[in-house]
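Um, can you check?
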Amino acid sequence: MKDLFGKALLDYQNGNYSEDIITSTSISDEDVLPIPYLFRDYKDMPKLEKHALKLCKGSVLDVGCGSGNHSLYLQKKGFDVKAIDISEGAIEVTKQRGVNNAEVVSLLDETKTFDTVLLLMNGTGIFQDLTQVSKYLSHLKSLLKSGGQILIDSSDIKYMYEDEDGGYWMDMNAGYYGELDYFLSYKDEKEVPMKWLYLDFETLKLACESIGLQCELVLKGEHFDYLARLS
């Protein structure tokens, strides 16, 4: 990985903001990801994120923290927060913005235990594909203290396959419809494509039950998105 995401965050943090990130997926065209949005305050967060932050308790692990918006908010509220991301640039920005405990570490390499594990902005994306969901959920379960919770959001992107007649054009021989290739570019550089998973709630719930996690639908968003609480 070239860490173009981290580079973009560092540019913005250091006053060198001149253009935004461009993203696309295997089923969608190019879209602009405005970098200022990645530095949003609580008041500018979607209702799912706000609700997740209100549900946090005890010690918190913020997985895929980005520029540290959620960690900063919780830290100011008095929570003991650890922020992790695989992007070195993102963690550098998170530290510069004042998050006390931020580390470059992948989720599967985290070993400490927490009362709340937070995975927001399509938290299931980190699972990459359907075959890895149980492995990631089992690891997440191992990070919970007694009575702990995982707060995770995603979207059911089935709507993206709908045709004008209300039917769906999914290839039944292909993999799960939420498995996408994710492409990112910044300042004319292209990042190595990533696997990214959007998981519908029922599939998430089944995967949780298979490894002994309870999965509860907490809130539905305005566009096929949802927040779930696993315990």
About this structure: The two ends are 33 Å apart (CA to CA).
